[in-house]
C-alpha cells in the first residue's frame, strides 16, 4: 500500500524575505572578504582562490555530513562560495586576461550545463529537494558557479560605464522584476528562485566594490577588513534573530 506523502526535512532554509536579506549581505561580504585577501593582503587572485576553495570544500563536506539543517554551517558555506566566486572570477577575467565578456559567457554556459545535468539526473532542480548527498553536491556546485558568474557580471556592468551605484540599481531592479513575477504571474517558482539567486550575487558584488574601492574609482574607500567584519557581524545577528528553520518538501517514496 502506497504511503501517503509526508514532509521530510531539507538541508537548506525556507526561502523567505529573511533568506534573501542574509543572502545579499553574504554576497557583499564575499566581495569585500575576497578583496581583503587578494588585494589588501596582496596574496593575489590565485592564492586567494586556493585558500577559499579549500575552506569551501571542508564546509561542503560538513554540510553534506550534517543530519539536519544547521543555520550557521549553511550560511558559512554560502559565504565561502561567494569569496571563491570573487577571487576565481577576478583571476579568470584579469590574470588570465579572458575579459568580462569571455568570463561571463563561459560561466553562464557552465551554470546552464550544471543545472541541465542536475535536472537530467534528478528530475528537478528545486531547492526543496536538497536532502540527499547527490542533490546537495549538485546544489553547492550550482551555487558556486552562480556566485562566480555573478561576480563577473557585476564587474562587467560596473566597468562598462554604469559604475558601482548604477550596477547596484540595475541588478536591484532586476530583482524587483522577479519579485513582481513571483506575486503576479504563474512563472515557474524554481526558475524565479534561481534567477533571483544569481542576481543577488552581482548586486552584492557592486555594493561591496562601492564600499571598498578607492574614491577615484567611484567607491567609498572604506577599509575592506572592517567592512567585512561589520557585514559578518550583521549576518550573525540576523541568523540569531530570524531563527531560520529547514524547508520542507513532500516525500515521494512509496512504502509497502
Polypeptide structure, described:
The chain has 256 residues and is mainly α. It has one domain (10-245). It is built from seven helices and two strands. Strands 1-2 form a two-stranded antiparallel sheet. Helix 1 (17-40) packs antiparallel against helix 7 (224-242). The longest helix is centred in the middle third of the chain and has 52 residues, at 133-184. It is globular and about 45 Å long. 42% of the residues are buried.
What's this, in brief?
The protein has 256 residues and is mainly alpha-helical. It has helices at residues 17-40, 44-65, 71-95, 99-122, 133-184, 189-212, 224-242; strands at 7-13, 246-250.
Taking the sheet with the most strands, its summary is: 2 strands, antiparallel
Q: What is the alpha-carbon Rg in Å?
A: 18 Å
Our count of domains comes out at: 1
Query: Which structural class should the secondary elements be placed in?
Result: mainly alpha
The helix count comes to 7
Dominant shape: globular
Q: Mean pLDDT, as a whole number?
A: 86
Q: Beta fraction of the residues? A: under 5%
Proportion of helical residues: over 70%
Total number of beta strands:
2
Q: Reading side by side through the largest sheet, how are the strands ordered?
A: 1-2
Write down the secondary-structure element order.
EHHHHHHHE
Distance between the termini: 5 Å
Low-confidence stretches: 1-8, 249-256
Present the secondary structure layout.
Elements: E1 7-13, H1 17-40, H2 44-65, H3 71-95, H4 99-122, H5 133-184, H6 189-212, H7 224-242, E2 246-250
Antiparallel strand pairs: 1-2
Helix pairs in contact: 1-2, 1-3, 1-6, 1-7, 2-3, 3-4, 3-5, 4-5, 5-6
